[in-house]
Amino acid sequence: MDPGLFERPGSRYFQSVAFHSLRSMIVTIDGPAASGKGTVARGIADRLGFAYLDTGAMYRAVALAVRRRGLFADATGAVTASGLAGAVSQVAIAAGRDDTIPMLTGIRVEIEGEKITLVATDRFRLAVRELQWKPEQDDMSATALIPSKILSDTAKALTSGDWVTLALSSGDAGEGLIGFESGEGASSGGKGARRMTSRLLSGEFVKYRSLFPAEYNITATVETAPFLEAAKRVSLVADRTSPIKLSFIQGEVTLEAGAGDEAQASEALDAVLDGEDIT
Questions:
Q1: Is residue 252 within 8 Å of 220, Cβ to Cβ?
Q2: What is the C-alpha to C-alpha distance for residues 84 and 41, in angstroms, rounded to an integer?
Q3: Which of 41, 69, 141, 175 is the most buried (most CB within 10 A)?
Q4: Predicted confidence band of residue 23 (pLDDT cuts 50, 70, 90)
Q5: How far apart are the C-alpha atoms of 140 and 137, rounded to whole Å?
Q6: Kindly report the CA angle at 171 between 79 and 108, in degrees rounded to 5?
Q7: What angle do CA 34, 35, 40 make, to 5 degrees?
Q8: Are 194 and 60 in contact (CB under 8 A)?
Q9: Residues 176, 109: Cα–Cα separation, whole Å
């Protein structure tokens, strides 16, 4: 055999090897809803001669099968679409990205009566957000650990309606399912409804409540918007992992970033402090 066959791109042998190498590849395309990923994926599959698997349709089929077989309990309750989207966006930023610790890549949902608590942490940051909802049962109590990315995408996708209905199946963590439904006709299963289904994550979530003291000796109150804007400005001189120093005195909070020979920034805002000065 001519050794040059392995080196000449125009040879039939090279083309055959390249073709079979391509056929052994698996290409995945991900993106937000209605971004055109399905159209692009079909085009690439046709061009390269790949088999095309529509995972979106597959997941919808699984969700339909689950619904038809009665594996879901009845609706657990409903929450405003805007409230859910806002709360999830505030909490998801603290969720972990390390897949070797899957329980930290999720958002914990705690349901107690008319209150839902969303919690996420990556061991360095912790975000907790509470919001009101309408449970089907006044004494409703349940927990669920949902993949952060799935819950974030779901909350964004289900803003077409005023309300989002939650259905939480029975089962241990990692074995149960949670469903979301929103849009026109959602309550009656109409064609205008949009539905999302996700399996719950397994593993025990961090006992975060033990990290907070039962009582506080010092409290400070600042306006949200000015505080966020000031934090963005001073953080321009700091590395991504560098802290921003907060110094509270009576009537004022000072934000500082940068140190040593590096660029430094400082900004002061009005604040209401109840207790001693603290940094």
A1: no
A2: 31
A3: 41
A4: low
A5: 5
A6: 45
A7: 115
A8: no
A9: 13
Nearest-10 crossing angle of helices 81-92, 148-157: 150
CA distances from 82 to 100, 147, 155, 225 (A): 32, 20, 8, 19
Q: Which tokens is 100 given?
A: 């070797």
Determine the Cα–Cα distance for residues 138 and 130; give it in Å rounded to an integer. 17
Q: How far apart are CA 67 and CA 189, in angstroms?
A: 11
Side chain identity at 266, as an amino acid letter?
S
Give me 65's structure tokens: 């099968």
Q: How far apart are CA 259 and CA 30, in angstroms?
A: 41
What DSSP line would sit under 161-208, residue for residue? SSEEEEEE--SSTTT-EEEEEEETTTTTT-TTEEEEEEEPPPSPPP-G
DSSP H or E segment with residue 219: strand 219-221
Give tens-digit pLDDT for 54-67.
Answer: 877 776 777 677 66
